[in-house]
Design a protein that fits this description.
Blueprint lengths: L15 E3 L2 E3 L5 E5 L5 H20 L6 E4 L4 H6 L7 H10 L1 E4 L13 H8 L4 E7 L15 E7 L9 E2 L4 H13 L10 E2 L5 H17 L4 E6 L5 H18 L4 E3 H8 L8 E7 H10 L6 E4 L1 H13 L8 E5 L4 E5 L16 H13 L3 H16 L2 E2 L1 H4 L6 E2 L2 H12 L3
Parallel strand pairs: 3-4, 3-5, 5-15, 7-13, 10-12, 10-13, 11-12, 16-17
Antiparallel strand pairs: 1-2, 6-7, 6-14, 8-9, 14-15
The structure holds NADP nicotinamide-adenine-dinucleotide phosphate (NAP).
Length: 417
């Protein structure tokens, strides 16, 4: 593939996918998009941290060959006003694994969010958010160390799919008349209308990914989170399709909660994964009071959106929460916060959300030793209370570091492990 403005480093080798398996060379080319606002600051710092961890873990035997890709304001400057260049999407597919900083959604003119466009164009159907506690981070919970949960949120369906009909429009009147006259539906005049599509295909591929993740990472349970008691044919169906899929495709590896009680007297058989479900509203309570009971969650789009931020707040907030959007193999890891424009180019903000998204990325390509070094160094920096301004204001006697100084502190811990 040839590109107009993207330079694929000749020193590296692309990740390949054959027979549904990803092959990662020792010199993989990974894509990065620095993003807008604070994006360049946090990307610069994180690239240094990831490279230091890889060098420390493998002593030169393995090395990432970074390839810059463009999206957002930087892309507009290079591609004559195009914020969302087609060749960047081609490169994301071509390289398989990429990481991105936050992107501004330009205001006005019906401009769609670049993040939403990226998810839809690339069919990145699973939003994956691991939420875990690092010692030393301020938390409102009494036992934040119990939080170690990975959320798989469906990314393409549900009321977020944008099938909406504004009150007072012709399209709205047509649909309302059809629903009233032909389907017997009853609702207030001039109500805005939105469609909530949830399909077996969309639900099953998301739940399959969550269960496979639980198997690959020795997790104890997968919980299907839904509001199926009220929305029976959408979220209720998500639950039913989830149990059916678990039994069809993972019969040897799973036990459902009913089977646990009916067949095993409440004692989990060794080496099996428990498949259970909970209603979304009670999940918000359970995740505060008994987070230790949950492991992997698979849930619909809006539920996952709310739960991700609520859970992140228990262990330091979205400033450090990592995330990724994934298709079957193609994955784009990303900082979960926005561009915080007032702090752009001040070398001030916390790079941790992006840095820890990179930890997920290293784990995704199987470079667990490098990921583990960052995971071990991170709490040490927190315990020293050498942190960026956002954490310093939550801690007593903290030393406030700039973004680049925070990266230096983390790298120096990595090099001493
Ligand atoms: P934001 O950029 O996330 O910033 C809100 C506040 O969160 C900041 O003012 C700052 O709080 C804190 N914050 C965010 N990132 C931080 C970091 N790395 N370190 C320390 N503090 C951090 O949200 P926004 O102002 O609502 O959105 C700004 C732009 O970002 C919008 O154009 C929006 O569309 C875009 N956005 C992009 C993404 C994405 O690309 N994934 C996600 C969300 C929003 P204090 O002021 O209290 O210090």
């Amino acid at each position: 593939m040839t590109y107009q403005h993207i330079t694929i480093p000749e020193s590296g080798t692309k990740i390949s996918v054959e027979s549904d398996r990803m092959h990662v060379p020792d010199n993989p080319i990974l894509g990065y998009i620095e993003g807008d606002g604070i994006g360049p600051d946090i990307t610069r710092a994180s690239l240094r941290i990831w490279d230091a961890a890889v060098e420390r873990a493998y002593g030169g035997r393995r090395k990432v060959h970074w390839c810059e890709l463009y999206m957002g304001e930087k892309a507009a400057g290079i591609y004559g006003g195009d914020f969302f260049p087609a060749e960047t999407l081609d490169a994301i597919r071509d390289l398989t694994v990429s990481i991105k900083g936050p992107l501004t959604t330009p205001v006005g003119g019906g401009f769609r969010s670049l993040n939403v466009s990226l998810r839809q164009e690339m069919d990145l159907y699973a939003c994956v958010r691991p939420v875990r506690y690092y010692t030393g981070i301020p938390s409102p919970l009494r036992h934040p160390e119990e939080v170690d949960i990975v959320i798989f949120r469906e990314n393409t369906e549900d009321v977020y799919s944008g099938i909406e009909f504004e009150s007072g429009t012709e399209a709205n009147r047509k649909l309302a008349a059809f629903l009233r006259d032909e389907m017997g539906a009853d609702f207030f005049l001039d109500a805005g209308l939105a469609i909530k599509p949830i399909s077996p295909f969309g639900s099953r591929r998301l739940i399959r990914k969550a269960i496979q993740y639980a198997i690959d990472n020795n997790r104890a349970s997968v919980t299907l989170v839904h509001k199926g008691n009220i929305m029976k044919y959408t979220e209720g169906a998500f639950r039913s399709w989830g149990y059916a899929l678990a039994k069809e495709e993972f019969r040897e590896q799973i036990v459902t909660e009913d089977e646990l009680w009916d067949e095993y007297g409440g004692t989990m058989p060794e080496g099996k994964i428990l498949i259970k479900d909970r209603i979304a509203d009670i999940m918000f309570q359970l995740l505060q009071l008994r987070p230790g009971e949950f492991d992997v969650l698979a849930t619909n789009n809006p539920n996952g959106d709310y739960l991700s931020d609520a859970l992140a707040a228990e262990v330091g907030g979205i400033g450090i929460a990592p995330g990724a959007n994934m298709a079957d193999h193609v994955a784009v890891f990303e900082a979960t916060h926005g561009t915080a424009p007032k702090y752009a180019n001040l070398d001030k903000v916390n790079p941790s959300s992006l840095t820890l998204s990179g930890v997920m990325m290293l784990e995704y390509i199987g470079w667990n030793e490098a990921a583990e070094l960052i995971n071990r160094a991170f709490p040490q920096v927190m315990e020293d209370r050498t942190v960026t301004y956002d954490f310093a204001r939550l801690m007593d006697n903290a030393t406030t570091l700039s973004t680049s100084q925070f990266a230096d502190a983390l790298i120096s811990k990595i090099n001493r492990l």
